[in-house]
Amino acid sequence: MLSNDEIKDGVSERGGFPVERKRMKQWSMRITAYCDRLINGLDTIDWPDSIKEQQRNWIGRSQGASVKFAVDGHPSTHIEVFTTRVDTIYGVSFMVLAPEHELVHAITTSAQKNEIDSYIKWAGSRSDVERMQEGKKVSGAFTGAYAINPFNDEKVPIYIADYVLAGYGTGAVMGVPSGDQRDWNFAKHFDLPIIPILDAQKGIDTEADATKEGRYINSGMINGMDYKTGTATLIQWLEAQKLGAGKIQYKLRNAVFSRQRYWGEPVPVYWKNDLPYLVEEKDLPITLPEVDKYLPTETGEPPLGNAENWRYTAPDGHQYEYELNTMPGWAGSSWYFYRYMDPNNDSVFASKEAIDYWQQVDFYIGGSEHAVGHLLYSRFWNQFMYDLGLVPHAEYAKKLVNQGMIQGRSNFVFRAKERFFEEYLWIKVLQPFLSDTDPIKMYEPGFEEEMNYDYAFASNDLVIEVTSYKQEEKIERIRQAAAADGKRLLILSNEEISDTINQPEIVAAKIRAALQSRDLFIMDGTKPKSQTLFISHNLVHKYSDEACSALHVDVNLVENDMLDLNLAKGVRMFEGASFKVDAEGKFTCSAEVEKMSKTKFNVVNPDHVIERYGADCYRMYEMFIGPIEVAKPWNTNGISGVAGFLRKFHDLFYNEKGWNVVDAEPTKDELRQLHLAIKKVSDDIERFSLNTCVSHFMILTNELRALKCNKRAILEQSVVLIAPFAPHIAEELWRGFGYTTTVCDATWPQLNAAYLETDSIIYPVQINGKHRGNVEVAVGTSNADIEQMVLAQEFVQRNLAGAAVKKLIVVPGKIVNIVM
RNA sequence: GCGGGAAUGGCGGAAUGGUAGACGCGCUGGUCUCAAACACCAGUAACUUCACGGUUGUGCGAGUUCGAGUCUCGCUUCCCGCACCA
Question: Predicted ipTM?
Answer without folding.
Answer: 0.93
